[in-house]
Amino acid sequence: LPSYTSRKLQPCDVAVFAPLKAAYRDQFEQRERGGVGTIGKSHFTYLYCPARTRTFIKKNILAGWAKSGL
């Protein structure tokens, strides 16, 4: 994307990707509390998929685009 588009897309970062980051962190911390000391590349999709499913919802996506004015 051209550099000048980042200002327009920043609300998507706040409305969609910030909740994804928090949900992924929750998944990670659950595993850590469960005794998993190291989480490698092979665990990424196992943790990412439920986090993405919980956060990439229509409400969050529409909120991001509404905030961008597009």
Automatic annotation (TrEMBL):
Residues 1-31 form the DDE-1 domain. It comes from the Eukaryota. It comes from Lepidopterella palustris CBS 459.81. InterPro entries: DDE_SF_endonuclease_dom (IPR004875). Transmembrane segments: none annotated. GO terms for molecular function: nucleic acid binding. The lineage of its organism: Eukaryota, Fungi, Dikarya, Ascomycota, Pezizomycotina. This is DDE-1 domain-containing protein.
